[in-house]
């Protein structure tokens, strides 16, 4: 299974080798910049130019949570390996760590001087790496 998101505001899961569309999710009001599966495989997270991050339940193809807090397009998202936290990177020069259980922002990471374009948790750690249009990479301890 492959997961994609695009300018059509939709995410899709594709089966291989046939390349058939298995699921489609709609709800964002602008392009999708990122999407990834929860480590358990039962949910996914998407980020969008509409300034939101959304969590989706694959069994329903429906949005179960919309995370709001960025003031500009969200450029990327990722899950922590434990599945309890989501990270987002935004054109507003910040990144956020979201607690999925409490449905709120746990930390806002400030320090980049330009758009934060990607974010990833390092495997099995509390460290996040961000990349920015300011031509820097940053490592963050989000404990």
From TrEMBL:
Keywords of this protein's UniProt record, alphabetized? Repeat, WD repeat
Matching InterPro entries: WD-F-box_domain-protein, WD40/YVTN_repeat-like_dom_sf, WD40_PAC1, WD40_repeat_CS, WD40_repeat_dom_sf, WD40_rpt
Q: Which superkingdom?
A: Eukaryota
Q: Does Manganese appear among the keywords?
A: no
Q: Would you tell me the Gene Ontology cellular component terms? A: axonemal central apparatus
On whether Metal-binding is a keyword of this UniProt record, the answer is no
Q: Which Pfam families match?
A: WD40 (PF00400)
The entry's protein name is SPG16 protein
- Organism name: Molothrus ater
WD-type repeats, residues: 25-66, 67-108, 109-143
Biological process per Gene Ontology, one example term: axoneme assembly
Q: What is the lineage of its organism?
A: Eukaryota, Metazoa, Chordata, Craniata, Vertebrata
